[in-house]
């Protein structure tokens, strides 16, 4: 018998109370005032007799009632009774099989399958087994079953995946399975290559006390391995022609001797170069391929080296976006002066990675179709062209950006629209002696990130005339002039952004175009407003790929050709990248050129085959207490109640004892033992 | 010996009377009604003092000689008007606040003292009061006008504190220089030898001493049966006891104590009158009157 509240047993010390009452305080509860003890003190009295318990039955009854009351409050319960029977009964085995990339080693996977089959064959009829395949996540392949053939069949279908290793996720799954097993004769077998990099995160993991975890080491005899760890691509627009140059980083680990390998670059399915390299026994080496003509559009490819015992990391896939240039649709007024936007256009044209391409268009000729290729629309001192209509707002909500440059033409603009979150109340004219400057700038904002360490560059800009802007509801001011008027305003609209620039961007309103801050400001403005973010060349497997919001009814083709239609909700759509290779996203149907492509490779640490000592791996695992981590069957509510219901019987027994005590103390000689009456001392004649 | 109507002397009935003066008058009247009216008052022609004439005074008692000398009326007072001085020495220690009878010993003693004072006042004696507690004596000197003050003092006094009766009597002997009757009312929980010595010192100053030993039936018979802790009413000392096992020896010790008190106090020439609180007061009053007559204090 155990207790839910064992601390309550400390109250058993209260048993001393009746004893003390009997032995010490019994005579003192109401002392009898007597005129003088001078005669009584002369009489020899045997004190031992006075301290002897005079009424043993009554005392035992009271002590027993008190003890039982304490026991009842300590909530006794009966532990599971079928422990012994369970030990004698069927066995339950949790079979954890590592299927990470490192397990695809030529020597490892067959050994792992053989070990798994050995464990399956080692079970008896009636033994239950569960098969869990794990990499960086755990998957129950075959739930608890006694059908060994089914487990063997599932085992034959398993193949290593291009995924990382996390022992923690496997053991957590095992813990849950153990809890559901319904028996105490349990065993967890972990078939793995004991890759050291997979131990991360296992420290502090709590497992049931007494649970046997048996790592089965199937690692290769030698951790020697060569892998392509990364690739860098550099696109150059020319002249004379657009090229792309690639560099690959190779890693050699624990090689017995220097090894010569051939690295091959493949772009869009065609060989783009090969290099023969002498690898050291341990270390990294960068292989630079010759620049080749950049294929038109998106570039996908891979770098491959000669295969070794672990072929999964000998190829690294990548995908370079079709064109990472940002197209700026510059909408100019019909009465724009010659070269009015010259500084603006020239400043944006400078710079690469990404390049910014300005597409000027008169407001009268602007059309919604031009938005398709644009990343940013700049309204140069002009109202929203009617031809764009609501399409512009939809385009912004889908992720586009609009920058409204307010000049003299829009200086009296009274209207506020979602894409132009400000109105103007005329122009402010500053004198040459006291020109306007930027006073309050939110340097923490990404727009002003280039000036966080060089804010003086912005302070040096002088403005002669600028609009008196008033901020629309929901918009925020990123910068103000020295007189407090807004200079830069931003508002979010859906996934896109709308900015209003009050600071003159042409020489007529100030010297901004002539200042060093002009070029970084404009470039940052274009990238920020367009929402441009550099896409990685590849993603590690296991990550989630959030598809572009502009994709409607997306369908994704996996590297093995399988198709997946991700569910789309208000947050967009995403899929988990499980395989190594190229994932292609299409709209509605898999036809034509994919709208988006992402390359997926196994985590680079999977190439490190250094094993860990099994004891070291289990070192960080903590055992749960016997109660919390019991591997017994989780009892039902009725069973729990049955085990913990002893307190009711105890309380009933206490009630009986109290009743018996009452009867005993009020019957017989106990009832007649009374003191002689004494007159109260306050009884007085007066 | 004539007896008084029991209704006027029964302690249980007297306990219902709240006013001590009324109680005393009731006791004395009831007691005296059973006696033949006799000249029990003392006579004397010894001049005591002059006092100014007050309307209502007997014109025959005006001292005309004094009038001739002073042109004022003075009345002559004689010792015959104040036959004797009675000092009630009442033990007000905590041990007196005990009783298993209808009254506690203190209440009984207070009634006894008040009745004796009233009786003495009727006899024409001067009456005074001494409260004995812890070796000290709070004294109201005997006077013909102190009866009400004495009764009031008796009424507001409670029995509490330790007792040192011999020392208190020694102190009283020093204070009460004028010879008279000293009535000691106490439960006498003292060493008989020491108490007798103190009584002897009073006798040595020509006081007539009557010791009323107030006894509660419970402390005489010791009828207690239940095991309990006995607490000394004065010292607070406690003694866990099984009284039924000790009762016999206690009663023997108590009787021996009473006997020794009697013998030793009587040996000093004083009277020793044990009074039990469940008994009427007349026993004590007779004893007092007998002693009063025996003294023949008529000067």
Question: What distinguishing features does this structure have?
Answer:
heterodimer, A: 686 residues, alpha/beta, Rossmann fold, 5-stranded mixed sheet, 15 helices, B: 299 residues, 6-stranded mixed sheet, two-stranded antiparallel sheet, 10 strands
Walk me through this protein's architecture.
The complex is a heterodimer of chains A (about 675) and B (about 300). By secondary structure, chain A is α/β, with parallel strands linked by helices. Chain A has five domains: about 1-80 and about 645-675, no CATH class; about 90-220, 3-Layer(aba) Sandwich (Rossmann fold), CATH 3.40.50.410; about 225-310, Sandwich (Immunoglobulin-like); about 325-530, 3-Layer(aba) Sandwich (Rossmann fold), CATH 3.40.50; about 540-600, Sandwich (Immunoglobulin-like), CATH 2.60.40. Helix content of chain A is about 20%, strand content about 30%. In chain A, a hairpin with a 4-residue loop joins β25 and β26 (about 485-495). In chain A, α3 runs antiparallel to α14 and α5 (about 110-120) runs antiparallel to α6. The longest helix of chain A has 20 residues, at about 645-665. Chain A is flat. Mean pLDDT of chain A is about 85; it is low at about 80-85, about 630-635 and about 680-685. Residues about 1-10 and about 35-45 of chain B have low confidence and may be disordered. In chain B, a hairpin with a 5-residue loop joins β8 and β9 (about 240). The longest helix of chain B is centred in the C-terminal third of the chain and has 25 residues, at about 245-265. In chain B, the strands form three sheets. Chain B has a six-stranded mixed beta sheet, with helices on both faces. In chain B, strands 1-2 form a two-stranded antiparallel sheet. In chain B, strands 8-9 form a two-stranded antiparallel ribbon. Chain B is an alpha/beta fold. Chain B has helices spanning about 10-15, 20-35, 65-70, 105-120, 145-155, 165-175, 190-205, 215-220, 245-265, 280-295; strands at about 45-50, 75-80, 85-90, 125-135, 135-145, 180-185, 210-215, 230, 240, 270-275. Helices cover about 40% and strands about 20% of the residues of chain B. At the A-B interface, β2 of A face α4, α5, β8, β9 and α9 of B.
